[in-house]
Design a protein that fits this description.
Shape: globular
Distance between the termini: 39 Å
Order of helices and strands: HHHHHH
Number of strands: 0
Helix content: over 70%
Strand content: under 5%
Largest sheet: none
Structural class: mainly alpha
Length: 105
Amino acid sequence: MNARENNRASIDTQPYELVDLAAIIRSHRWTICEAYFYGGYQAALEAVAHASIDLCGWVRSRSLTAPAAFDPLQEVSENLGLVRHFGQDAVQSAIVAGVKLWSAP
């Protein structure tokens, strides 16, 4: 068996874990809502940025598309009044926090 075949065999036998991405997104939405409930607008906006950082890793690994990751963050921000309180630019800055962090050298 040559090196390429050996590498292929080891890839095929590696254990893998199925991840429920919808559950991850729901969990982030819930965390943002809890942050709003316990800490107000600022805490919720910080939770949006945190969710963005985590979800961007899934987008970069191509396990999740960008709209599927970031549209729910926009939606929950609108529902909680973050867009009305801070403005769309501030909310968008929080949503792209993950993209900025993951693309940094």
